[in-house]
Amino acid sequence: MNFRSTVFALLVACSISAPAMAKVAVGEPAPDFSLTDSNGKTQTLSQYKGKIVVLEWNNPECPFVGKHYGSGNMQRQQADATAAGVIWLTINSGAAGKQGDLDGAGANAYIVKVGAKQTAYLLDPAGSAGHLYGARTTPHMYVIDQQGVLRYMGGIDSIASTDKDDLAKATQFVPQVLAELKTGKPVSVSTSQPYGCGVKYGS
Hints:
Layout: H1 3-14, E1 34-37, E2 42-44, E3 53-57, H2 63-70, H3 73-83, E4 87-92, H4 104-114, E5 120-123, H5 128-133, E6 137-138, E7 141-144, E8 150-154, H6 173-183, E9 197-198
Parallel strand pairs: 3-4, 4-5
Antiparallel strand pairs: 1-2, 1-5, 3-7, 6-9, 7-8
């Protein structure tokens, strides 16, 4: 099987079909949620009102997630964003027993292993936040502005593949959106097709 065939098979297996109608819309207030993070602390979106927030849906066993963490791309984006005062929340909506499901200790071990730089890693085994936002894939990215309005939702970048060599050619959407919000420019790309493994919801 050649490379393109392999990627196509992964995309089919990991489900990047057109997303169902999301529960959220760009330009509208992002809905609040309450989840427990990997350290047992309750985290809500509303507690970060006044700050830009990035939501990143994660499955450590997904090869598309592996591309962005294995290359260091995700960690660099996290580090750059949080250094600029952005809140970065990584969310795992995998149900118990499904691929990528982690408890708090497992999440903390994963953070150390990959050198992740997010603000917090949130556990969503019931899928409440995932369903609320219509999260379809891992990764699936969202950017919320200081007023709590959703400004971007979609893929992490513009090339749907597991090939690290594609990173240099791809538009990295989240850093682009963050730079535009910082300078007060309109967001040039507010939605895109997410790609990756389907979120492993329980129902």
